Task: structure prediction
Amino acid sequence: MLTNMKIRLDAMRSLLYETTRFVDISKVYEEVMKGRKLEKEERMEMKHYMKLANVFTPLIKMTASEACNKMAYDSLQIHGGTGFMKDFPIERIYRDARITSIYEGTTQLQTIAAIKGVTTKVFLERIRVYESEVLEDNTDLKKVLQAMTSEYEEIVSKVEEVDNSEYLDFHARRLVEMAGNIIMGYLLVLNGQRESKFMKSAKLFVDLIRSENRERFNYINNFNIDNLELYKLKSSELIES
Ligand SMILES: Cc1cc2nc3c(=O)[nH]c(=O)nc-3n(C[C@H](O)[C@H](O)[C@H](O)COP(=O)(O)OP(=O)(O)OC[C@H]3O[C@@H](n4cnc5c(N)ncnc54)[C@H](O)[C@@H]3O)c2cc1C
Result:
């Protein structure tokens, strides 16, 4: 449990730093623009990083706040009954964690913003950049991430072919999380290339997300669109239950 928490934390940090990098570069250009007109290449670069920041920001907000809840839950579990009492800070951390997926935009609203990264292919383009940066030493991990990327592309195409916004909304979170997992997997591998201590987290995280993404792939792949209607509760059903 502790190891799983540690690798999730490393993954979230990688995504957070990557997102802040995109935001910082865009903001620097905004500051420069106050003093002078940007050159054509600078304008293009600013647009590029703004596009990335616009979809990575909701991605990190939803991913990190949900992970924070899971980590606080597991951490309290490790403490046992004493974790539930006020003797240790985890009792407070557990309560505080719960708001993170609600304020500053709920997870559901972050998903609505982040799905644009899926439909505009911004996530996929960035994944291709990371893929090109992985060194030969890490071919095994790269192969797993490439296979996951192919599955992701396949299932995104399948959802898009249906061309039904309700169907896309229904699967949006699953698609965003699949992309986020691949991105964090690559970022951890790239961190591991720069600093070997991250390689352990990279290996374990990629193992973990391979099965997570497969589960989402299977769910979407086997989903019968006619069943969308079954998810619409009538008020009489709500009163009954
Ligand atoms: C401790 C605390 C501090 C806060 N601090 C601030 C602050 O400093 N400044 C500030 O402006 N606000 C602040 N807020 C408000 C906070 O930002 C809102 O609570 C948050 O944005 C959610 O809005 P809501 O509570 O109105 O929920 P609602 O918008 O009513 O949402 C209820 C539920 O419906 C879901 N939902 C809503 N719309 C959709 C949709 N289109 N699709 C799918 N699901 C949807 C939501 O995800 C949520 O699960 C704070 C709240 C708390 C509890």
Summary: The chain has a mean pLDDT of 96.
